[in-house]
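Example 9 (inverse folding). The structure is encoded as follows.
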């Protein structure tokens, strides 16, 4: 035994030990990155679906289908959050007591027809979660966007329950379009167009205009014989009633 009383590992054994320690460190970092109850990892999108999404979307120039609020990305001020929900309805992070941690106030609204470039579709692997900033929705898939005139990368957050290519693509397609909706926006009256640019709805809007302003609803209730329809958004705080494709009443803002 060499002096000093220590036991020296053979090179091969030392290599195995180093790799094992590295894997353990990564695992510990991933666990340390989950201090809040809402940070439990969601379902895992299969590798082939992740690869397909990346191939289809990375580098693509698309357009915002709906108006979105833009503001700081929670505690990571080097990024911006884009969401079609009012910030008071964004429930992506919970504190240790189960309370919702809201993002900072919005800075501005990006209108429908805003051109964007998809830079990455990033999924929450343990390594990705570990390197994301605390107090951000780290266990969700993120869509990284480049927006003209915005120096920060802009993040669309995808639900943690999205489990397949179709789930993730459907969420992204709620926001992004391969064709420019600017013409449809320009065809509206000045009154409706200005409301959409502020993410507001006004009576008399059609389905498309309401969706541009408030985003697509979570639920639609149709009464075909009467030509009436009700839309409900997540959380039930925003509701809209239509008759013959015209908004006649709404709640929330």
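The amino acid assigned to each position is listed next.
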């Amino acid at each position: 035994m060499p002096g000093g009383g220590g036991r020296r590992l053979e090179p091969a054994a030392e290599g195995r030990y180093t790799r094992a320690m590295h894997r353990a460190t990564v695992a510990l970092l991933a666990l340390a990155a989950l201090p809040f109850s809402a940070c439990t990892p969601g379902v895992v999108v299969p590798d082939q679906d992740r690869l397909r999404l990346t191939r289809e979307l990375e580098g693509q120039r698309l357009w915002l289908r709906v108006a979105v609020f833009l503001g700081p990305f929670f505690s990571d001020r080097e990024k911006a959050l884009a969401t079609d929900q009012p910030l008071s309805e964004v429930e992506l992070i919970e504190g240790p007591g189960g309370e919702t941690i809201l993002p900072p106030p919005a800075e501005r609204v990006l209108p429908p027809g805003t051109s964007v470039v998809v830079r990455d579709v990033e999924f929450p692997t343990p390594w990705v979660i570990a390197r994301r900033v605390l107090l951000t929705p780290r266990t969700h898939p993120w869509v990284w966007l480049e927006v003209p005139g915005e120096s920060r990368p802009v993040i669309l957050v995808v639900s943690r329950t999205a489990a397949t290519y179709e789930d993730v693509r459907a969420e992204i397609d709620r926001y992004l379009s391969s064709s420019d909706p600017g013409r449809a926006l320009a065809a509206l009256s000045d009154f409706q167009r200005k409301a959409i640019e502020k993410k507001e709805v006004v009576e008399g809007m059609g389905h498309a205009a309401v969706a541009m302003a408030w985003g697509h609803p979570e639920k639609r209730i149709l009464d075909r014989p009467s030509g009436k329809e009700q839309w409900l958004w997540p959380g039930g705080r925003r509701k809209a009633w239509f008759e013959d494709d015209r908004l006649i009443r709404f709640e929330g803002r």
